[in-house]
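Supplementary Methods S3. Input chains for the assembly prediction are listed below.
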Amino acid sequence: MKKKMKRNKGLFFILPWIIGLLWFQMYPFVMSLYYSFTNYTMLKEPKLVGLTNYVRLLTSDMEFWPSMKVTAIYALVVVPCKLAFALIIAMLLNKNVKGIGMFRTLYYLPSILGGSIAIAVVWKILFMRDGAVNHLLSGLGIGPRDWLGSPNTALGTICILSVWQFGSSMVLFLAALKQVPASLYEAAIIDGANRFQCFFKITLPMITSILFFNLIMQMINALQEFTSAFVITGGGPMKSTYVLGMKLYTDAFKYYKMGYASALSWIMFLIIICLSMLVFKSSSAWVYYEDGGEF
Amino acid sequence: MSRKKRYHKIISYCLLTAVAVIMLYPLVWMLFASFKGNEEIFRASLLPETWTLDGYRNGWKGSGQYTYATFFKNTFLMVLPMVIFTVLSASFVAFGFARFKFWGKKFFFALMMGCMMLPNAVMIIPRYIMFRNMGWLDTYLPFIVPCVFGGGSFFIFMFIQFFRGVPRELDESAYVDGCSSIMVYFRIVMPLAKPAVFSAMIFQFMWSWNDFFGPLLYINNVSKYPLALGLRMSMDVNMSISWNNIIAMALVSIIPLVVLFFCAQKYFVEGVAATGIKG
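Predicted structure tokens for the full assembly:
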């Protein structure tokens, strides 16, 4: 009797979450799959059209593949750069330098503010034709460029904004690096290992679980990027920053092609799932769990 | 200290400082530019030649009809309930996960962790349609109500991790003394979980303060605009006319975040480290 009471109690406590899950996650999730097979436009009732939306997206939509390409480039630049920066700075900070607290704070600050619209606005002004970035670069003898006006550099500008926010990953790496036992390094140095060997044979293997986690989360975020492209460049020039998030927003909330945009969102979902699965599957080969992988 | 070691240290410091300068430059530029007149914004010098508060004075007026006072008020009306409900409901749910055995617990836990990786993009459209049909557009309910029901996997997981570190013996002795489980949650576990509570509050405050996409979809009425939308409106309305106003207001809009960050950075760092999750 008492045992049964206790069983109910646990469910009682998680009940709010279950309601929220069904209401705000499962229901929308299922409905978006349903909408993706309809021609819903908010003006008329949804009508099932089979795979039409998917077929049209993949074969005859002029924006889809360019948008995929832009998003892929964005993710391929941002995720590795961000992680590499975070790791390098974390390793420098881990050397018992004085003032580590101050540096950590300063590096973390952009991660706090970077997601805000305020920073996006400032970014836009900084990279304008006669903005501060061009002034600084002209000091180095590099001619002024139209960073946001040229299709070659606009995406890069947005990538820089994202990489600038490496602080949160850095804090994670720093916590992981502190866990690596110093005895390992001491033993390795006695055996005559150099810095590079220490890094690749000790440091990197010991922090793979955090690296793995960071990789997945950053990837999911990068593939859904929207705000910076929307505010800084509006997807332009010449659609060079028209990421999938922008396309989703435009199709759904400008043209109200809800069915069509739902199909797009499912394609994004499938890409994210496939990539995550790939990383998960490969993780057994490169992620090292000290406790045997128990969660 | 050997010479080589000292040499390495100096290089580390130089590198760290150089990176810090580059990283902080945009923020420092923003600070000084906010005191510049509009014609000075695009000049090369970092410091303003003539210091002026015009940007603040004129920028604050917002759209004319609605000042930034309205946008600030709206942001707080949206963010504070989100913070409070998130902390309460996420810790409540986490207490269930951390302290009880129940049917399907493993399954539910896996589901919850899985939801953390469920991309938002796939749920946006039906959510929008649902909130519209319920008449929730132009209110803050689409933001607040989800926080009442669980508040998101991230926060639940954060509390679970923390509760695991709170000794169970405390609960047991409270039960022996005749406390109910709700009393144990309120009287024993929650007071001990203060660091987790602070971390959760800070993160939720930061994320909802910065949120742009949600308000963009659900809030159309200017009188309900939070800061994020107000700023974008200022930018669209002004169209390259008065950048100093926009920079000044951008700066004002992030002051609460900066203040919070410097007051509570300990909890930021601990929160990140405890859950191992991005910020």
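The first helix of chain B runs from residue 3 to 33. Residues 199 and 271 of chain B are 5 Å apart (CA to CA).
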